[in-house]
Amino acid sequence: MSKTYDSLHMGRSSIDLYSNDIGAPFAEIDSFAAYIGGSPTNISVGGKRLGLNTALLTAVGADPVGDFILHFLNNEGVETHYIPRKPEHRTAAAVLGIEPPDKFPLVFYRDNCADINLNIDDVLAAPLTDCRVFQFAGTNLSREPSRSATMMAAEQARAAGARVIFDVDFRPDQWHDVRAFGVVARGVLRLVDVVIGTEDEINAAMLSDIAQMTVTHSQVSDTKVAGDTRGAIEFMLGMGPEAVVEKIGPEGARIHLRDGDIIEAPGFPVEVTNILGAGDAFGAGFIYGLVKGWGWHKAARLGNACGAIVVTEHGCANFMPTMPEVEAFVAPYGGLD
Q1: What is the CATH number for 170?
Q2: Which of 32, 66, 197, 220 has CB 3.0 to 4.6 Å from 201, enough for a Cys bridge?
Q3: Where are the alpha helices (DSSP H) in the chain?
Q4: Is 257 a domain residue?
Q5: What is the pLDDT of residues 127-173, one digit of tens each?
């Protein structure tokens, strides 16, 4: 059936302030560049730049920061009609230091933020029956009313024939306990067709045995969660999804299918400037491939290429590549196949 939107993305939106002083310790930063951010927001921009018709379901405050986000999205061509403004709440913010190759301190400002207050009425106003892919982020599930609104959105989208994609998006400081994250994440899997996450995120979502249940919030404050990743993925697949896409950094991605097949999609070697945003760029490329009917391998290779391009840049959404830019980037590597 024909759908108006190739993809609908639900969850976080923010103004992101990225350090202009690359390599400087956070306390010594002199200035920041302002971009838009938030995982589903970034993915909606990335998908649009590649050629998809994307819509975003988030919320912003009735404040200048909300104006900033909507102005950028409208200029990009992302559908913003379904973004309510909530005067009683503030638009979210994030501040990032950049110390390559592996130190990127990130601080979220999400107290009383608008997007976590998306509710069921907002969902009912969105085009959940008129999209081919519905993608949501795990942070949506951290608080009500966004948690139940997201679950209802996934139910409605799936019932209407959309492919539902769950980007695990585990942010420890948005949860009071890693075990609470796992309980909620596992509870939503029956509504999901494809899960996308890193090894740490997958392990955090699947914590279930007694030894693992003793893990405390402080132990995962850096998003590092030990565990049997293969076993966690098998358990996850047994709860409903057809595929789990494991992001493995510079090595690319590994797609685990319900029938036991594992598809390796190698990455592209680049010099890293800023790793934050790589996962969102991957998501945009991967979703593009699914919408276009590509196989798992080629879709993930496009995701890897988009991620590789973005990690060489200063920010995320503002630097998402177009398809011609991707084609030029992958040509020396023999393309996406």
Answers
A1: 3.40.1190.20
A2: 197
A3: 39-50, 64-76, 120-124, 146-159, 178-188, 199-206, 229-237, 278-291, 296-311, 323-330
A4: yes
A5: 999 999 999 999 999 999 999 999 999 999 999 999 999 999 999 99
